[in-house]
Amino acid sequence: MSEELTKSYGGGSPIVNIGIYLTIYQKNSVNLSLIDLPGIYYGDKTMTRMIKSMCKEHIKSQETVILYTTTCSADLNTGEAYAIAKEVDPHGERTLIVATKIDRREKGFITQFEDMQSGLGIVCVRNRTQEEVDNKISF
Prior knowledge:
single chain, 139 residues
């Protein structure tokens, strides 16, 4: 399927600007569509430019909720994806931040959260350790 999409839409490019949408309809609630966008890749300047453009295009609408996902072991508020989110949502009113690997957080990470504006909040995620998996400990 990947090869067919690349031939049909990408002109030989390894990425295409065609979203994969998951649309959820439920009676008596707001319709919701989820769009999974690629992470920013720095190995190829053309591809990096295409991905940034694609991300901006999909998150610019004022009705769009931006889910900014980052790892706690990184500098949280200096990532390129965060900069793009801030560009289209400068006050963070429609940005939800998800920080993964909370168990591997760097010193001072709480201060980084305080510096980040997010009207929808910040959620931290921790996966089970191998020992927890082996001992069948669930959350």
